Amino acid sequence: MDIERTHSDVVAERREPGARRAALLALATVFLAFSVIWSPLPPPIAAGDDTQAADAALPADAPWIWPVEGARTMTAPFRAPAHRYGPGHRGMDITASGPLRSPASGVVAFRGTVVDRGVLTIDHGDGYIITLEPVTSALTPGDVVEAGQVIAEASAGGHALPGTVHVGVRLEGEYVNPRPLFGDMPRAILYPCCDGE
């Protein structure tokens, strides 16, 4: 039996399991990184697709009523993401202060705080769900609302600029451009150009 073991022999024996563990962890990390890199992404969504989907399947009670009365300005338009989880703007922001109206009849699906802002979600049927934020509301889930009924007050918080409200619409679970759902959409006017050139 060899009793002449040195301190460095003992330390080396003790480090060996740790070294194996570290090597296995490094190998697992490399494997995970490569599997993420080579995993397929969902197919991209063309920016026009969501607008066309909303135009093609307008709800029976379209056009909807604007949530704000009087003059309004769109401060941030809908921007479709390149893929389901990509960056974009899944709705539109419009100037708003004071009371907000339900764009169509429906049932309150959610009212509460999400992160730092009040959110109100209404199911309008036919697969259409609208979300307004930031808002304060006394409604509760299950409350029935009518088109034009005051449903909330514009408030502050979230990504929307002060004095604006975010209007998001989902159709069958997918975000769509809400703009075509509302009335008085201005039409493009094309003017002649360039004196016959």
TrEMBL record:
Gene source species: Microbacterium bovistercoris
UniProt keyword Chaperone, yes or no: no
Segments crossing the lipid bilayer: 22-41
Name of the protein: M23 family peptidase
Domain of life: Bacteria
Pfam families for this protein: Peptidase_M23
M23ase beta-sheet core domain sequence ranges: 88-178
GO MF annotations in UniProt: metalloendopeptidase activity
